[in-house]
Amino acid sequence: MTHISIRNLNAHYRDHQALKDIVLDIPRNQITVIIGPSGCGKTTLLKSMNRFLDLVVGTHISGDVLIDGESIYAPGVDVTEVRKKVGLLLQRPFPLPMSIYDNVAYGLRIHNMHKRGRGLDAAVQHYLEMAGLWDEVKDRLHVPAGRLSVGQQQRLCLARGLAVEPEILLGDEPTSALDPPSALHIEKRLLALKEQYTIVLVTHILRQAKRLADYVVFMYLGEMVEHGPAQQVLENPQQERTRAYLEGEI
Amino acid sequence: MTNKLLPRPRVLRSLRVPLLSRRKTERIGGRLFLITTALPLVLVVVIALALLARTYPILETQPIGELLFGQTWHPLRGEFGFYPFIIGTLWVTLVSMLLAVPLCLLSAIYLAEYAHPAVRAVMKPLLDLLAGIPSVIYGVWGLVAIVPWVQNVAAPASKRWLDFLPFFAVTNTTGYSILAGGIVLAVMVIPVIIAVTYEVMEAVPNGLRESSLAVGATRWQTIKHVVMPKAAPGVLVGVVLGFSRAFGETMAVLMVVGNVPRVPSSIFDPAYPLTALIANNYGEMLSIPLYDSALMGAALVLLVVVLIFNLGSALLLQHFLARTQA
Ligand SMILES: Nc1ncnc2c1ncn2[C@@H]1O[C@H](COP(=O)(O)OP(=O)(O)OP(=O)(O)O)[C@@H](O)[C@H]1O
Ligand SMILES: [Mg+2]
Questions:
Q1: How far apart are CA B216 and CA B207, in angstroms?
Q2: C-beta of residue A219 within 8 angstroms of C-beta of residue A41
Q3: How many CB atoms lie within 10 A of CB A193?
Q4: For residues A198, A201, A205 and A209, what is the CA-based torsion angle, rounded to 10 degrees?
Q5: What's the maximum distance between 2 C-alpha atoms anywhere in chain A?
Q6: ipTM
Q7: Which of A47, A69, B124, B281 is deepest in the core (most CB within 10 A)?
Q8: Helical axes A100-110 vs A120-130, angle rounded to 10°
Q9: Which of A50, A85, A96 to mutate to test the interface with B (most CBs of B within 10 A)?
Q10: Nearest Cα residue to atom 27 of ligand 1
Q11: How far apart are the C-alpha atoms of B178 and B89, rounded to whole Å?
Q12: pLDDT, averaged across chain B
């Protein structure tokens, strides 16, 4: 049932503590939504799950993150394997400087996955279909990806992430740069994908949380204040700070 | 009709005046920009025409093919072949590019992608400092360090181990050579190229790197497939900028290449770049017939070479941008 277990996780940026002793179990094949005011550590928590915190100079991490019971911080763990298993959608889309086709094929080529199973063409089509982009781009697969609209670019990034066959999808406010119809399009995709993937999303938009979440985590000033099934946390919060946030007081 | 009878409302009039004048300002501003943009272009054309006019006398006595491809430079006998100078310029530039560009790329990659912020903080002002050193100083350094090094170390080593290769034969034992010129030129342009390349790579958005790393690419794969292609147009501009400077910086090269007007066949041969020809001889021996005209011709050739160089890189830039455009 539990897919990701976070155990006593502390994260420091130099001497600023961004995460304080987080203990959390993230359920498999559900959408877990992390909410909380700006600067409370949502992005930091998310990036602890694919070893992206390693990229920031001066971070210090203690505690552990386990995926399927295996530590991703254990010595000898291959970070590229971790990141292959845990996809990440950024706040706004960054198409790689290459064609639409090559963007989706990028990870497949990096990991030498295109030689086994069905061919590269079929794989590219499959993942573009999963991301709901195929029909819009099938006639111009070889134009630079930068020519797509921002909404299409974000779906392309989704396809690129799906192509390396992850088990988990992280999203850091993945719709915040998009217009409402494009945002809804992404939401629809995520809802469809949770059958096969464990999804963890950060969002600022409470209504989006209500639409998507099966499980909700509320954070405040680096602490995890409350977590539980969406219904329970959003409708009937147990903590005063959660209630205040949901009612727009903090 | 009513206009004549009724005075216009005050408000309207006061609104109209600034509107009109603003439009006028905009038009004048637009033209001004056009003029300032066109000015350098006009200037290049004017310079080219002036040089052409001064070159005309020699073009009347010799066909252009003979000037460009003539191998002997003997002003007293009226022989003005530019070929050795053109080839000399290309050799020195090519050698310095081969030395500088890979080194600059690696340094810039290191600085932008791997170095600790503290290293960057030290390196940036250092590069600016190096870029600001007057070229004569590099020339002197070339004289006291590089020329003897070529003479005593590089040339004997090449004679022993690389003699069988084309372009590495040693017949000149003075050390004043294309290699010395190329090294000095490379050292001069390296800080400029590193600085520009580094800045261009730093300007590549972090989100692109993260996007690549997020699918499990390694750092090096990310640099190779994402950062470099994205930065390529800017890197190209950096290289061109460095060598545009190099073309102009006659002084340092002139001091170490030997200035012998013969077509070189090895990096250990001396050469005589076009810039050195003009700088060394203009104002002297102008009593020789057509000498002045020949030097103007050399300047014209240099101008054309630089223009072709810049145009070529602009086209290459377009090609890159069209491919990766984002
Ligand atoms: N690279 C960094 N260096 C230093 N401090 C950082 C860095 N990144 C984040 N922080 C700090 O860590 C804390 C948590 O940041 P984080 O980005 O996780 O917040 P967030 O909840 O995602 O905020 P937002 O909703 O604005 O995206 C903040 O106080 C922030 O200032
Ligand atoms: Mg954030």
A1: 14
A2: yes
A3: 18
A4: 20
A5: 55
A6: 0.94
A7: A47
A8: 110
A9: A96
A10: A38
A11: 9
A12: 85
| Cβ(B271)–Cβ(B92) below 8 Å | yes
Residues A51-63: what's their mean pLDDT? 92
CA-based nearest residue to A33, from A187, A184, A148:
A187
Report how far apart, in Å, the C-alpha atoms of B313 and of each of A23, B224, B227, B306, B307 are: 57, 21, 20, 11, 10
What residue spans define the domains of chain B? 82-273
User: Which chain B residues are closer than 8 Å to A164 by Cβ?
Assistant: 215-216
Identify any residues that bridge with A227 across adjacent strands, giving them in sequence order.
A217
As given in the structure block, the two tokens for residue B113 are 């992608």
Mean pLDDT of B9-32: 67
Type of residue at B255: M
**CATH: 1.10.3720.10, 1.25.40.10, 1.10.287.1700, 1.20.120.430. Which one for B82-273?**
1.10.3720.10
Phi and psi, residue A39, nearest 5°: 85, 5
Residues of A in contact with B325 (CB under 8 A): 144, 146-147
Please tell me the distance from the alpha carbon of residue B271 to that of residue B267, in angstroms, as a whole number.
9
Structure tokens, A180: 């409402």
How far, in Å, is the centroid of ligand 1 from the Cα of A92? Answer: 17
Whether residue A92 and residue B207 make contact (CB cut-off 8 A), yes or no, is: yes
Residue entry with tokens 């915190």: A53
> Contact A96/B323, CB-based, under 8 Å?
no
Average pLDDT (B261-287) is 86
